[in-house]
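PROTEIN DESIGN WORKSHEET
SECTION A - STRUCTURE
LENGTH: 200
TOKENS:
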């Protein structure tokens, strides 16, 4: 068995002018260099999920899903672990991220999630992180202990417009990815050994 896990790095914001792709590309690059992951960078803007959750797209039905919903389902299903990158919008997560989470159930189950957040306040998106820690257990998904946050991110750009805080967060990123890999391997082995029982 390869020690590499399939890692989905999810860009949680679709808002015009969003900063989310910058930390997402950074953590995806660190994960690729880590050696324990094959990385799939998932941009919810490109996923283009329908705004209306039609009955044929619901995870609880046996209908054929629409093409965008099925395509993202395949990418989430392949992943053994996730890093979710989220800004903090009005003390919570972007609607686009909640929308994407709610479209799926089994694709998230029995997998670990690490959180990378940012915000314009000193909390660095921790309100968004806490909401995700409340949401994911309902999907039988584990949020790991370690996380990374970027408080008042807009204050940390140099004269070339480059963000200056990524390098100093390199050690924290390695610790986060080491923990994520441990949980990802443990849960992948568990899923292979015994199907997860239905919660219903």
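SECTION B - SEQUENCE
RESIDUE ASSIGNMENT:
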């Amino acid at each position: 068995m390869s020690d590499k896990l399939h890692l989905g790095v999810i860009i949680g914001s679709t808002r015009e002018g969003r900063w989310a792709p910058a930390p997402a590309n950074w953590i995806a690059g660190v994960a690729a260099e880590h050696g324990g992951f094959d990385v799939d960078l998932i941009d919810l803007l490109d996923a283009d999920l329908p705004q209306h959750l039609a009955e044929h797209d619901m995870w609880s039905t046996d209908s054929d899903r629409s093409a965008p919903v099925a395509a993202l389902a395949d990418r989430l299903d392949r992943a053994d672990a996730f890093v979710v990158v989220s800004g903090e919008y009005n003390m919570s997560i972007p609607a686009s991220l909640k929308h994407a989470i709610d479209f799926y159930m089994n694709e998230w189950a029995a997998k670990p999630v690490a959180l990378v957040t940012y915000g314009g306040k000193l909390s660095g998106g921790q309100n968004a992180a806490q909401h995700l820690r409340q949401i994911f257990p309902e999907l039988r998904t584990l949020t790991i202990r370690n996380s990374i946050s970027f408080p008042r991110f807009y204050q940390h750009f140099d004269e070339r417009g480059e963000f200056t805080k990524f390098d100093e967060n390199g050690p924290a990123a390695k610790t986060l990815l080491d923990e994520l890999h441990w949980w990802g391997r443990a849960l992948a082995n568990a899923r292979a050994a015994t199907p997860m029982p239905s919660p219903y």
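SECTION C - NOTES
Helices lie at 21-34, 44-47, 67-78, 95-102, 126-135, 170-193.
The two ends are 32 Å apart (CA to CA).
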